[in-house]
């Protein structure tokens, strides 16, 4: 017999009660994390994760935009959305001008599954879906359907600083009440929303060795340094390459401008609205500074050395440079 939704929910609640809990010190207990299998996760995201694992059905046209939180997800979602929908909207009518990028593309683990299914049913070509899940947590059907995966990653020290401000913004704590040192310590000890950052990267990277043609890696800093080239490659990978004509007409530059931090962070919707997820998050928290190297304003030499050592240990031999 198949279980009803109520029964499944109840089972999940029971399971969650048995998991190790951690109340984030630097968020003064406002955020409870649960350890599920080998990583820490917020309760609401955990429910979404477990139900995605149990029942999400990927389709071959789905393209997954994967990332560790704070490594450029919002930007990647905006870019892919703009690339894919460029023929549907006149420049001044893009939904990105009135909608948070996170509300333009659903997120596996956060958006409810029925909604994702409706969205999959609606589109007959590329269907981008984002997720923060580590690679080994992806629902089986993503792998068996041979879906394409874009993975964005970023300098680890900048991710830590970005994470700190984001979490502090959600809990509305000042820097005195939530000192950076404590956030650093927890992050260093692998207590963050989706496990250890370097393991997250390594999981996707290792999987890419087996099926390189299904993976496309984007480095946040590279996208900043050379957006034209990187947006071109991204468009090719997701199956919407630019024609010569489009290149001449400046379509790539227009997409870059539309999705730029300067443009998006200044839009009314991103300044004053709230993200309609399970946690109340003000949209503006997704747009902070978008600078490369802001970590230098927060890290001590000792912190920096600790992270360098970790990167050395974990990434040596991979060719990945953070
Ligand atoms: P900072 O906190 O360093 O400013 P995510 O989207 O994965 O949550 O990551 C958020 C980080 O990306 C934040 O970094 C944010 O400012 C930056 N960001 C958001 N939109 C961006 C854009 N359009 N271009 C470049 N960076 C962007």
From TrEMBL:
Uppermost EC category: transferase
GO molecular function: sulfotransferase activity
Keyword Thylakoid among record annotations: no
UniProt keyword Protein biosynthesis present: no
The entry's keywords: Transferase
Gene3D superfamilies (alphabetical): P-loop containing nucleotide triphosphate hydrolases (3.40.50.300)
One Pfam family cited in the UniProt record for this chain: Sulfotransfer_1
InterPro entries according to UniProt: P-loop_NTPase, Sulfotransferase_dom
Sulfotransferase domain span: 60-319
Protein family per UniProt: Belongs to the sulfotransferase 1 family.
UniProt name for this protein: Sulfotransferase
